[in-house]
Amino acid sequence: MKEFDLLTISLKIQEQQEALRLPIPRNQEETYRKASDLINAAIIAYRKKYQLKPLETILSMVALNLAVNGLKTQNNKDIEPLLAELESMDAALEAYLQQETEN
Q1: What is the pLDDT, as a whole number, of residue 73?
Q2: Which SS3 state, helix, strand or coil, does residue 24 take?
Q3: Which residues contact 94 (CB under 8 A, 6 or more apart)?
Q4: Half-sphere exposure of 103 (CA within 13 A, CB side)
């Protein structure tokens, strides 16, 4: 990737002393900012639910939750080619049945 396609952004994660400074592709800034917001919201929610747990445990729970959600999303995408094939077969069957009823 060309250097001029990169943008350095600062993201603050809950309870972190200093912001992360990341060089990212310019067209992915919104994604990184939304990811940061998602992490911060999850930390706040886990902090409320498990007030006595240490930060390391909270961060581990957040990381695990986000990883599980990512894998679920990935698994859902794995069936997209199958769905496309089924839709194609359905369209072919519809066309065949239409032709048969016309004859």
Answers
A1: 84
A2: strand
A3: none
A4: 6
